[in-house]
Write a sequence for this structure.
């Protein structure tokens, strides 16, 4: 960990396996940037409780599942600190301090909070759910992150974090950098249904740990251009889900496929086959790597423990500065 490298913090809620939307939305960026930045990856288990507080039984496996996904896609624990949110009490402490400088109105206007609460059918929200952007600000700032690679839906939370940081720095002392969001190449990958973004809760996802056969089957079911009935009908790639995936995962063949589709020279079945191979080429090395971690669960646990310990040190130092800035350091060491 070098002192002068800029810092990244980003992460996920452990609510199950990660999918291709996560991959092109943010994972790819994290893998690429981990050498250039001092990177922290948070497994936000407390944030997962905002929606899953009634079913904690799966949490422990879900945390390890996300960690395996990280390691399998090429997150290198020598370069990236992977940590478990609930094991850093300083994050909870920062959340309480920040809650004094965020208004309820700001949170109620947050578009992601609004659309998620509609999606989950909440007519009343818990305090924790409404306030999770505040806890996310604590995630981002405990390590003084400069850059936050995320999907597009997270932008309002980064904006909220910047507001908190500005207010804190102006009011007390300049402790934090103002973090910036970094959006992936495909911030909103469409799901297999062609309607909404790829998401576990909408059951329209291809997972990083799907088998070759599962990937092929899912693609066979994917929605294509509805105007195309006969194989030589001219197609409209701009409305086709399968073509969206070619753009994201099969850049080499994309142009040729687009042209052939428009001219009715390639049918949907053949086009889907090509996508299947491209995806399986991408996923195969990830599957191979995963085997090592499935067979050695203690490797994953070791990464989590070491990462969390390292993060805790950083968090302690930040809290010391925060308490000093807020004049809460009654008995300085
Ligand atoms: N809210 C993010 C998601 O649902 C997960 C997350 C928690 C996060 N803490 C974070 C992302 C801090 C970036 C930075 O995907």
């Amino acid at each position: 960990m070098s002192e002068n490298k800029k810092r990244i913090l980003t992460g996920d809620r452990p609510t199950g396996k990660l999918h291709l939307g996560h991959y092109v939305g943010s994972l790819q960026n994290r893998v690429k940037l981990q050498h250039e930045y001092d990177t922290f990856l948070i497994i936000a288990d407390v944030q997962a409780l905002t929606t899953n507080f009634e079913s904690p039984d799966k949490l422990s496996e879900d945390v390890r599942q996300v960690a395996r996904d990280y390691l399998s896609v090429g997150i290198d624990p020598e370069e990236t600190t992977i940590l478990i949110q609930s094991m850093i009490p300083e994050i909870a402490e920062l959340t309480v301090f920040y809650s004094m400088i965020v208004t309820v109105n700001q949170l109620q206007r947050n578009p992601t909070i609004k659309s998620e609460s509609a999606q989950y059918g909440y007519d009343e929200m818990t305090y924790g759910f409404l306030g999770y952007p505040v806890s996310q600000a604590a995630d981002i700032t405990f390590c003084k992150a400069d850059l936050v690679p995320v999907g597009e839906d997270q932008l309002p939370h980064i904006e909220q974090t910047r507001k908190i940081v500005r207010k804190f720095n102006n009011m007390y002392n300049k402790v934090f950098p103002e973090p910036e969001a970094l959006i992936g190449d495909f911030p909103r990958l469409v799901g297999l249904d062609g309607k909404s973004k790829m998401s576990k809760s909408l059951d329209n996802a291809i997972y990083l740990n799907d088998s070759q056969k599962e990937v092929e089957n899912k693609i066979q079911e994917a929605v294509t251009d509805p105007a195309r009935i006969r194989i030589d009908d001219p197609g409209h790639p701009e409305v086709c889900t399968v073509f969206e995936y070619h753009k994201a995962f099969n850049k080499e063949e994309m142009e040729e496929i687009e042209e052939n589709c428009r001219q009715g020279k390639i049918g949907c079945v053949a086009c889907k086959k090509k996508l299947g191979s491209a995806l399986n080429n991408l996923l195969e090395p990830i599957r191979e790597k995963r085997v090592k971690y499935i067979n050695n669960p203690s490797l994953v646990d070791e990464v989590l423990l070491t990462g969390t310990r390292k993060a805790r040190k950083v968090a302690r130092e930040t809290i010391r500065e925060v308490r000093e800035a807020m004049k809460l350091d009654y008995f300085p060491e």
In short: The two ends are 26 Å apart (CA to CA). Residues 297-325 form the longest helix (29 residues).
